[in-house]
Amino acid sequence: MANFILIGICILAGIFFRKSKTLPKDAHKGINAWIIYVALPAVSFKYLPHITWTKDLLFPALAPVVVWMFGWLFITLYSQFRNISKATSGGLKLISSLSNTSFVGFPLIIAYFSEKELAVAIICDQVTFTLLSTIGIIVAIRSSQQQKLNVKLVLKKVLTFPPLIGCILALTVPRYIDLSALDVLFDKLAGTVGPLALFSIGLQLKFGGWFGEIKHISFALLFKLILAPLAILMIALLLGMNGIITKITIFEMAMPTLLTAGVVADQYNLNPKLSNLVVGLGILLSFITTAIWWFVLTQFGFF
Fold first, then answer.
1. What total number of domains does the chain contain?
2. Exposed site from 4, 279, 281, 303, fewest CB < 10 Å?
3. Per the domain annotation, does 11 fall within a domain?
4. Cα gap 93→265, rounded to integer Å
5. Would you say the pTM of this structure is higher than 0.85?
6. What is the CATH number of the domain that holds 112?
7. Tens digits of per-residue pLDDT, 220-272?
8. Could you tell me which of 10, 39, 21, 91 has the C-alpha nearest to residue 277?
């Protein structure tokens, strides 16, 4: 319950500070910089060194990739049918294909399942961040009206994206250096991701022009909250998979949009208004849709 209340407080606080004009107009950019350059790398150091890798974890590792591929195809077809701008299409791909597997996903897994299942969620989370750090940045660059795509630029953006650097370092450095003394520090820094990201969204969340974006919002949320987990469910059934790892993986793919995807969409000016509406509304609707998915996964006897 505390996590649900915290989500509401952070978003409402951002909306309040925006409306009261207490903070500078571009205050969210400074917050986003902290999230990307400090907090997200700390997340990798908090979780990755403590995971025991087995072949059973291939499913949660591959599920975010499958969702990304289906999301990219879904939005590409939608963009061609609706003839929308390149920037809007790029923003929709980012916010439709990447799940909030940590800040929203972790507390919901604890609430609906148990804390010991977080190991599976962490795999989904790190693969999701890797996708954002690599192909997500490539999509953002290609879709940006301010930048042209070239190999040198892509490599520079991808290889200097702090969350990716943090992920690589978290997988390698602890093999040679004992960083356990810093666990408390990483825990504190990682804990700032959710509240600050939600606060940043609240600062940017405006409901003006709602009806002008309703079709885009509806299609993005239809895929993210319904079709994405449904695709993973169908794959699991076709492969004859079962067990708690399968359930947790499907449940994670039912999460709303990754908060950082909205941050990246804002950085590259990929219709940030639409992106933040999808992120904010997706979080609110996910409390209903994830409850439905939990019921489907536990009561229908699929696994």
1. 1
2. 4
3. no
4. 10
5. no
6. 1.20.1530.20
7. 999 999 999 999 999 999 998 888 999 999 999 999 999 889 888 988 889 98
8. 91
